[in-house]
Amino acid sequence: MSAKDDEIDGPAAERDVIQDEVDSAAEATTAEEPATKKSQKPVGAHRAREEDEDVAPAAEEAAKPGLGAELEALRGELDERTHDLQRVSAEYANYRKRVDRDRGAAAEQTTGKVLTDLLPVLDDIDRAREHGDLVGPFASVAEQLTAVTGKLGLVAFGEKGDPFDPNRHEAVAHQTSADVDEPTCVEVMRRGYTLGERLLRPALVAVADPE
After folding, report:
1. What is the Cα Rg of the chain in Å?
2. Most buried by CB count within 10 Å: which residue of 22, 59, 94, 142?
3. Comparing C-alpha atoms, which of 194, 137, 67, 138 is closest to residue 203?
4. In whole angstroms, what is the distance from residue 59 CA to residue 67 CA?
5. In which element (H, E) is residue 175 found?
6. For residue 202, with 0-12 CB atoms within 10 Å meaning exposed, 13-18 middle and 19 or more buried, which class applies?
């Protein structure tokens, strides 16, 4: 090879080397582009997600006051209805007690009226018993009448020797005696009667006071 050919081949070889380096650099750049693109995030989408995340708690916080007010209103209405129910229940219970009390009082008053009308008959029975005339069929009728009036709640009181009680006894005679330490019934002219706690008639008695 002549000197002229060497001069020509030198620049050509140098161009080939430079071309190879350029091609290598281009390949390296092409290989790095996907990784670079993969590592980059879309700025707009990221910002939209951040804005959505900020808006969601804000919406929840804004909804809480409305739910709280509605809950308080429901609680207030429930309390009001509960108080109304309790008041109505108490009024109904009082009404039933009042009706039962009035019904019982009316029944007792009617029974007392009937028994009061029968007291003279019972007085005759007592006098017949004292004189020994309570015999035969009349005795059976008297016992049945006494049993019926007893079932209706009629109770007789007034016996010789009972302490004198001005609320239950009517004194028609007074005397003094050394045998008593307090006013005492020494004679019973007519027995008294009670119906439950109600006094139908006081007993007529003679009273002995201590000397």
Report:
1. 60
2. 142
3. 194
4. 13
5. strand 169-177
6. buried
